[in-house]
Amino acid sequence: MATVRDVAERAGVSIATVSFVLNGTKPVTPATRDRVEAAMAELGYHRNVLARALASRRTRILALAHPTLEQRFGSTTTDFVTSAARAARARGYHLVLWPVDTDGDEIRELLSQGLVDGVVLMEVLLEDARVEALTGSGTPFALIGRTADPAGLIHVDIDFEQSMAIALDHLQELGHREIALVSAGHALPEYGPKVRSAAAYRRLCGERGLRPLLLECEASVVGGRSLVPRLEGRTAVVVMNEFACFGLLSELASRGVAVPGDVSIVSFTSPDMAGIADPPLTIMRSPGATLGALGVDALIDRLEDPELMPPPQLLPCTLELGGSTARAESSTPA
Amino acid sequence: MATVRDVAERAGVSIATVSFVLNGTKPVTPATRDRVEAAMAELGYHRNVLARALASRRTRILALAHPTLEQRFGSTTTDFVTSAARAARARGYHLVLWPVDTDGDEIRELLSQGLVDGVVLMEVLLEDARVEALTGSGTPFALIGRTADPAGLIHVDIDFEQSMAIALDHLQELGHREIALVSAGHALPEYGPKVRSAAAYRRLCGERGLRPLLLECEASVVGGRSLVPRLEGRTAVVVMNEFACFGLLSELASRGVAVPGDVSIVSFTSPDMAGIADPPLTIMRSPGATLGALGVDALIDRLEDPELMPPPQLLPCTLELGGSTARAESSTPA
DNA sequence: ATGAAAGCGCTAACAT
DNA sequence: ATGTTAGCGCTTTCAT
């Protein structure tokens, strides 16, 4: 591997000059710049990122901290991770994977190694020990999700208010006025998406004169089945529990309740899941890939200008029409 | 951040001695070792992995190279990645994400930065330009999957021979003798899992006196539906196309063909998918998490002893019984 | 068993 | 505009 020394020698300049053209740190005569660049090309020179990191005291490595016990998010998670890594690369950074427990200990341990300049934290909880560990460390970080009070923290998240409004808009435009919300009876008592969606749902129902009905069930097919007797004649259901959705669907079918004829369903899930349901689901699709890139970009912006406080970015899920929603006129609800 | 210098000073020894206790590189008197360790504890010392990497010429960072365009593997991929990262951590390594194109250019580019000691390559193709890039680079690597001729390459993969045998065993024990295999009509013409499974299926059919029927279809619900007219009276189907499986199921249902009453189905897919099918599927479950850890361990073994050539590890999928397979006696096939 | 000192390959003052 | 040089924090000979 060629080093700056080799390049400098071949170009007949000092290693400092090589460094200047490499980083654009100081002005260099076009003529010598050319000589240096030619030398680099001839030698196949690539700078050693490690040495650079040590000398510049910036590693240009970011960590992607995520829970060990994966919520089974499927393709959304994959999209998110890939786009985060690509976004980092586009700005000259690398992304290391840090599976970490929810207490902040592993985070602290890993931070102390000095490998990373910043951390992207996934699956943020309303109260989150990892966030405290990060705050205490002084290492810049970006949250994917939000704590209960995210003021002053760099974060990007789904806009649950707006997402819920879009889902309700769609159903109301179809004439539905009796709309239930189903969420997961989470092991995590205070799961942000659930809490925020429920709050948005309640508020919107209030504003729009709708009667709220909020149901919870286990995140499984069996859980979904158990919902049917509790639907109280609703003609539409918004489901934030992708596995339960299949149980709901199958139980409705077996009771002769037609979807979307009698009951309309909007599910917060991925297109993959939507496609294998019968009927194919109308979904609210998570902006996973976009969030990954935005989170990384916000963090790097901050890293490169510590004065900066990148504003929170809240993106709604997008409505993708499937075959599980229809006009309410003829509904004969469950 | 405390440095070796600080520790050495506090312990009243030289920095070399600190390094010796840190790495166990040379014998140190219990007494001085204690003093050094006390000093480290008091100062909250953690060694800087970057400086260590630069000095030792080993970064202890591994890359996980994976295709940008994710095959939508869902939870299997997530498990794989998480377990690979954990395995690396357990041995004092970090894992960086490298989304790369299938030509080897990005790989070469990234390798030249000198950030990583080795690469774990996912989604290996039978002919794979990335493998050539790696071979040419001299950087040690491990394959998850196999090229057409993987001799001499460190690799771990699913044992498709054995997996297929297990699936057929199960169906034959239930009395089935007319068993079809469904695979994906892949964009990639030479996708290892498909080719190897098909070969195993043909060979096993030959050995066991079964008539092979190999069908392909698009990886979608629509693709799955198109299979039914082509089943030629088979009483059992092995499906290696997880999305098509749902189309198959629904088309059979709408034609009044009962699963598992008339046709049994074994699907190579994840438990998540199995759970939302109706009936819940009997599956062959991929050993994703195990492969992730094995791949990383094999690579690190090699890194730490270049003499070593870790043997290939081929693991079968595991049969998990669901409700989509039953005895053949009363079958009235499609 | 311990220490002194020379780098690892680069960046970034500080000179010129 | 370019060069000199002192580190970044650690590992690792080579002495003692």
TrEMBL record, chains A, B:
Q: What is the lineage of its organism?
A: Bacteria, Bacillati, Actinomycetota, Actinomycetes, Propionibacteriales
Concerning Pfam families, the annotation shows:
LacI, Peripla_BP_3
Name under which the protein is recorded: DNA-binding LacI/PurR family transcriptional regulator
Keywords of the record: DNA-binding, Transcription, Transcription regulation
Q: Which CDD domains match?
A: HTH_LacI (cd01392)
Q: Per the UniProt entry, what species is this protein from, by scientific name? A: Kribbella orskensis
Q: Which InterPro entries match?
A: HTH_LacI, LacI/GalR-like_sensor, Lambda_DNA-bd_dom_sf, Peripla_BP_I
Does the record carry Nucleotidyltransferase as a key word?
no
Q: Extract the GO molecular function terms from the UniProt entry.
A: DNA binding
Look up the coiled coil feature and give its residue ranges. Answer: none
Protein's UniProt keywords contain Transcription regulation? yes
Residue ranges constituting the HTH lacI-type domain according to the UniProt record: 2-56
